[in-house]
Amino acid sequence: MSFLDKLKNKAQQTKGRGKEEAGRQAGDPYLEGEGKADRIEGGAKQVGERAKDAAKDVRRTFDK
């Protein structure tokens, strides 16, 4: 499940970058802001996934 979550988060970041660039090109600050929000949200979710992975690694270390 974690791999799929990471993939979804990367896709959200990519979609955000696309929206942000499209908004810049079209001169639409709303679309640019929406893209930036998508990009940031995807990045924040990625940080959460990394924290979960780190916690699993710590747990595995102490289980040995």
Attribute tags:
single chain, 64 residues, mainly alpha, 2 helices, 0% strand, rod-shaped
Could you walk me through the main structural features you see in this protein, from its secondary elements to its overall organization?
The relative contact order is 0.16. The chain contains 2 helices and no strands. The two termini are 24 Å apart. With 64 residues, it is mainly alpha-helical. The protein is rod-shaped. The mean pLDDT is 93.
How many strand segments?
A: 0
- Given the structure, what is the number of helices? 2
Could you estimate the helical fraction of the residues in percent? over 70%
Largest sheet: none
Structural class from helices and strands? mainly alpha
- Give the overall form: rod-shaped
> What's the SSE pattern?
HH
Give the N-to-C terminal Cα separation.
24 Å
Regions with pLDDT < 50 over 5+ consecutive residues?
A: none
Mean pLDDT over all positions: 93
Task: Tell me the fraction of residues in β-strands, as a range.
Answer: under 5%
Rg over alpha carbons:
16 Å
Briefly say what this structure is.
The protein has 64 residues and is mainly alpha-helical. The protein is 94% helix and 0% strand.
